């Protein structure tokens, strides 16, 4: 981007409005899910929520599988059961005595919808696949390597963050760690080890 575009008042205004809208959407999502770590005055919140009419569309919430499943999976990439990563996920689930139809899987793009779905169904366990899903759901900033492999709570629901299957394809050395994570999930959910 050239200096003349960066200093163009219309471009600056458009970018500023987009940032404010994104921040407003973020604050609304945090408030709705009960994350109250940001302290902002009502006046500031009103200004942010009413600022401009531009901004990006909300991320679309997409999902697949049984909406009443006891095991929810939140996918950082939203690829679900497609491609090589999807095939590997199906294999992992099969080893856990689960099928793609017996779990609920959704993308990590819109956490308001994730929150509403988990609140209405109250699954027994949530598995987050990949960094974005784990960090967003659990509201942490650490790399996934630092917080995966142990259970957390999300509104009373146990959450197991682990690596995404697409990462396992690139770095097979993480497969053992993912399997250890899934064995903990199986123990907590009462599933029997299929292998």
Brief rundown of the structure:
With 195 residues, the chain is an alpha/beta fold.
Structural write-up:
It contains nine helices and six strands, in the order αααββαβαβααββαα. It has 195 residues and is α/β, with parallel strands linked by helices. Helices cover 48% and strands 13% of the residues. It has two domains: 3-50, no CATH class; 63-189, Uracil-DNA Glycosylase, subunit E, CATH 3.40.470. The protein has a six-stranded mixed beta sheet, with helices on both faces. The model is unreliable at 1-5 and 53-58 (pLDDT under 50).
Total count of strands: 6
CATH topology of the largest domain: Uracil-DNA Glycosylase, subunit E
Assigned CATH architecture of the largest domain: 3-Layer(aba) Sandwich
Taken from the alpha-carbon principal axes, the silhouette is: globular
CATH secondary-structure class of the largest domain = Alpha Beta
Terminus-to-terminus distance = 55 Å
CATH superfamily of the largest domain: Uracil-DNA glycosylase-like domain
Quickly count the helices.
Answer: 9
């Amino acid at each position: 981007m050239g200096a003349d575009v960066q200093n163009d008042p219309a471009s600056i205004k458009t970018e500023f409005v987009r940032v404010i809208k994104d921040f407003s959407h973020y604050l609304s999502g945090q408030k709705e899910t009960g994350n109250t770590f940001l302290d902002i005055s009502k006046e500031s919140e009103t200004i942010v929520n009413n600022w401009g009419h531009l901004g990006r569309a909300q991320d679309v919430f997409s999902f697949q599988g049984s909406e009443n499943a006891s095991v929810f999976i939140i996918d950082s990439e939203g690829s679900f059961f497609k491609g090589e990563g999807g095939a590997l996920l199906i294999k992992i689930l099969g080893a856990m005595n689960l099928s793609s139809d017996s779990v609920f899987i959704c993308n990590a793009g819109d956490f308001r919808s994730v929150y509403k779905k988990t609140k209405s169904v109250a699954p027994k366990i949530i598995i987050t696949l990949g960094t974005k899903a784990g960090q967003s759901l659990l509201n942490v900033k650490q790399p996934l390597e630092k917080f995966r492999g142990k259970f957390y709570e999300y509104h009373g629901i146990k959450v197991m963050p682990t690596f995404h299957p697409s990462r396992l394809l690139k770095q097979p050395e993480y497969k053992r760690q993912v399997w250890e994570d899934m064995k903990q999930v199986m123990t907590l959910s009462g599933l029997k080890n299929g292998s």
